[in-house]
Amino acid sequence: MDDAGTVTVGVLGSYGGRNIGDEAILSALLDRVRAGRPKTRFVVFSRDPAHTRSTHPDVEVIAWEGVCREDISGHLSRLSVLLLGGGGILYDTEARRYLRMARTARDLGVPVFTYALGAGPLTDETDCAWVRAALSDAVEVTVRDEESKLVLEEAGLTRPIHVTADPALLLEPGDLGEALLRAEAVPHGVRLVGMSVREPGRAAEHLDTEGYHQLLADVGDFLVHRLDAHIVFVSMERSDIRHAHAVVSRMATADRCTVLHGDYGPQQVLDIVKQLDLAVGMRLHFLIFAALSGIPLLPLPYAGKVFDFAQQIGAPALRGVVRETTGLLLAEVDRLWDERPARAADMAARTAAMQLRAAQTAERLLTCLDRIAPRHVVDRGAPVPASTAG
Q1: Which of 114, 155, 259, 303 gives a 20 to 30 Å CA spacing to 130?
Q2: 322 and 214 in contact (C-beta within 8 Å)?
Q3: 351-357 CB contacts, 8 Å cutoff, 24+ apart
């Protein structure tokens, strides 16, 4: 610390992995903390330091994967606090990697604050043991949904866990969406339905790829005919593009589809989603962007976090993404479109409530920072006269 107003905050999550949701979390986190404590210095631990530096040139970026404990300890020891999260990072086989860093920080006397993180599936006993060892003495544990709280409790964490909301709910939109869609040759003046797919991966390892590709193809064809719509596949990771093309290849109306290929940042994707009339998707942050844009959305819950979000936002909460649910899914899409005016006000109110909870994470952190390094101020940003300070 250089002075009483400066702290150094480390941020450890799945950053640099080119996932739009994770990058949205990081952007919103940095903006929110800076708004409350402008002098904060950030050290972001990234999977791809070059990418993170290019998108956040005003923060220090450190590579951490494959780095030995001795080398990483030098960076951790400089921190005032280490933020673990946000985003879904605590799941089987992956959790221990992040928690090992958190435990090293605590061994160095650096407080750990979990920032609206997501957890689950988490059943491996080694990972559960790491949860108990690394988070039992964290200064605060905040998670983004009730599902994550339950997962941590079932892993054996007995300390208080506070449920806030995903930091990406605080992302501010711009006005580039129309131009970006025009550059991708998306037709103008027609109804646009956004769809989001994902790869199975470790966070969705039970997903039946062939089955959900055909399911989404059926939904896409239905929407083209029912709404006279054009389908826009919005990728939240580069690997999503391949799966989007796989869905299109199964559609009878493939000529009424566009798979976006641009290398976009989170705000650009949010701007694109604002141009849509309806959203159907799997990726959590695609659905969050739809809620922020005030458009009807139908979540396809491949994991608990998506089901939990569907319930919170008041959207149809289907269970599972399997071909056997095609009829039910089409009926829900049809009803969602017909009921969109009535649903709009309710979804707006629910989204606003979730944004307030998301803001609470930063407020809790700022309170924590005040305890770690009290600043001599009356309120944030207003210095106390020398005669009354301290």
Answers
A1: 303
A2: no
A3: 351/169, 351/291, 351/292, 351/294, 351/313, 354/165, 354/166, 354/169, 354/291, 354/312, 354/313, 355/165, 355/169, 355/170, 357/163, 357/164, 357/165
